[in-house]
Design a protein that fits this description.
This protein has helices spanning 2-35, 40-61, 70-94, 100-107, 110-121, 128-144, 153-175, 183-205, 214-242, 244-250, 253-266, 272-294. It has one domain (2-294). The chain is mainly α and 298 residues long. The chain is globular. It starts with a helix and ends with a helix.
């Protein structure tokens, strides 16, 4: 029994680390697509539309039922749009007021938000290890952030709200009525509702456009893989195994991945602050992994 629990925990940790790697790579792929002439709204819509198509085909091939209850459908629509569309839109808006590093810092308040909600409303045990991990992670994000341009209250609020939106989606993946559905079914409907709302927004605002060249099409496919198809599935799997708090804390690896790929692909600067921030976040992930092995999610 203990070996089975350890294997399950190891799978959960692997899933969230893979998710963090994908989400960390995704901004670099988006940046490459934009440099090649792609449009932001088109890229985001295409990512979730391809995700819905992929998981729809998977469900057809594996003969999984598309049937959901009215309650499950409404929750999938609400939390999917909240955690993917609205979260992404708030982050993009915050870029108008803050440097990307500061936006990431305020957005990544969401693991602390999840920890508080799970402790207060769902009576999840708040261990010393998790408290230390949160402190290390927030300290690491602070080191990664660049305060030299000042802090816009509006930008900070938008980034914080994006984190709260995403945190609500993560909690729903553990507590909503749709958790009884197979993960592929959940991701299909989340992607379908998100792409539909993005399409509606794009048509109203006139921001959807065909990719101008084959390179952008290539980046769209790659962006869908690392921005929605793989991370949405493995992250949801991790939440079911480890619980939302542990998964969110381990997901702190995402900004480290983003920094490293920015360094490799775009020669972005790497200072001593960046190094200290990465080490603090990695120590958070190590603490959470050790906690998970001692106290697996029930």
């Amino acid at each position: 029994m203990k070996h089975a629990v350890k294997r399950s925990t190891a799978l959960g940790v692997f899933c969230v680390v893979l998710s963090s790697l994908c989400y960390g790579i995704s901004p670099s792929v988006t940046k490459l697509a934009l440099l090649a002439g792609g449009a932001g709204d088109t890229l985001l819509f295409s990512s979730f539309a391809l995700s819905a198509l992929f998981f729809g085909v998977v469900m057809l091939v594996t003969r999984q039922s598309f049937r959901v209850t009215l309650s499950q459908g409404l929750q999938l629509a609400f939390f999917g749009i909240l955690g993917c569309h609205i979260c992404g839109s708030l982050m993009v808006r915050s870029y108008d007021y803050l440097p990307v590093s500061l936006t990431v810092m305020f957005h990544f308040f969401f693991p602390a938000f999840i920890t508080i909600v799970m402790a207060v409303f769902f009576k999840e045990k708040l261990t010393v290890g998790r408290i230390v991990a949160i402190a290390a992670a927030l300290g690491g994000i602070a080191f990664l952030a660049d305060f030299s341009h000042g802090v816009s209250v509006k930008g900070a609020l938008l980034a914080l709200l994006s984190g709260l939106a995403y945190g609500s989606y993560v909690i729903a993946n553990n507590k909503a009525s749709f958790v009884t559905l197979p993960t592929s079914v959940v991701i299909f409907y989340v992607s379908l509702f998100t792409s539909s709302s993005l399409a509606g927004q794009g048509l109203i605002l006139g921001t959807l456009q065909l990719p101008p060249n084959g390179t952008v099409y290539l980046y769209i496919v790659l962006g869908a893989l690392v921005g929605s198809i793989v991370p949405l599935y493995v992250y949801a799997t991790a939440v079911r195994i480890l619980g939302p708090t542990t998964t969110a804390l381990l997901n702190m690896l995402e900004p480290v991945t983003g920094v490293l790929f920015g360094l490799l692909l775009f020669s972005e600067p790497f200072s001593w602050r960046t190094g200290v921030g990465c080490l603090l976040i990695l120590s958070c992930s190590l603490l959470v992994t050790l906690e998970s092995s001692r106290h697996p999610a029930g």
